[in-house]
Amino acid sequence: MRPFVFAIAIGLCGCAHRPPPAPSQPTIGESHRPYTGVPWYMELNRPERAAAPAVSVPPGEREPVVGGQIPKGERLDRLRALLAAADAEIVLIGPNQTEADQRALTLTVGEIVTLLKPYPDIAAEADELRELTAKLPATRAIELTQVKRRMGELTDLIRVQLLAGN
Question: 20 to 30 Å CA-CA from 161: which of 11, 42, 65, 81?
Fold first, then answer.
């Protein structure tokens, strides 16, 4: 009998509460006023912006795509992306590796080495990675797992040293 009385008392108390008071201002999306603002790019009388003039630079005077005067943040972003690409290409190393896979790894490692030139403390790891990549076609199948592991270690070591340097 007691649990029944207790349940009825809780039910009556729970149902006796008042509804929450209405907010003093309408919430977003519940206002009845029409939208009156216009974004700046949709204004009718906005001034036209002139496009930047095209600059024609002879091919010999252009900065190289890799290396050159690259800002530090952009250089680090490129290095991270290239190291991720190298890791993906290292996974593909094996007896069934195609010439295109080998070429892609060689080019990626070459770009990594070029971008690491301002970091002389990482030069040894980059050079070893390039040497291992160059020796891959002559590497025996039984040694490929050790070479893959070492290449992965080198990319990880480069990553750690880049993080420690910043």
Answer: 65
**DSSP states of 57-78:** --GGGSPPSSSSS--HHHHHHH
Rg (CA), the chain: 32
4-43 pLDDT per residue, tens:
777 776 766 665 566 666 666 666 666 666 667 776 666 6
CA dist 44 and 75 (Å) reads 42
Distance of CA 27 to the CA centre of its chain: 37
Question: What is the number of other CB atoms lying within 10 angstroms of the CB of residue 150?
Answer: 13
SS3 86: helix
Q: Which helix (H) or strand (E) holds 6?
A: helix 2-15
The pTM is what? 0.57
Name the one residue in this structure whose structure tokens are 């972003």.
Answer: 77
